[in-house]
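Work Package 3 (structural annotation) set out to generate three-dimensional models for the target panel prioritized at the project kickoff. During this period the team completed the workflow that converts sequence records into discrete structure tokens, so that structures can be stored uniformly alongside our sequence database. As a representative example, we reproduce one entry of 186 residues exactly as it appears in the project archive.
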Amino acid sequence: MTKFATPLRIALCAALAVQSVHAAQAQTVDCMPAKEAEALFLTIGPTFVKEMVKTCTGTLAADSYLLRSGPDLVKRIEAAAAGREDEAVAAFKRFGDGELDGLETQAVLPLVRDTMGVMIAKDLSAKNCGGFDAVFAQLDPLPAANLAGAIVAIVQLVDADRPASRTKRKKKSGSDFDICPVSTKP
């Protein structure tokens, strides 16, 4: 389970650890609702996948899932992200210091979509390409919206048993991008 979960955790933790320019002064937020985390994943996903394919091109076999199906995955994620922009921008603004609060979604969206995806991908290591390829290949039959939900749910499950991982992520990033745990109460 650890080998399987590691690439997913790296992808989502990286995605959720990215912060606004002034994150050192960020307000305290308990957690990000799962629906916002899913929207954020869908919004940054296309750029992240494109950058991941670039990083992994020299590492993966030509018939690997990411090299073979990466462009189709990007299109599927883009289609699923349509209409979720407000949620994604709200998730991004949630962890800022208020500088972006007065800006419209369309003004913030390029920062979220393009800049975050590239920033996250720059931390990818070629040694993780095989793991990412395996994970995305196994999840490929899912619609992109369900892919985002599955990744968020896996991070919630992993983090539920590992409070130290949230603390470590907070120290590393300077921000606390925890996804709210799954509630068992009605």
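DSSP finds eight helices and no strands in the chain.
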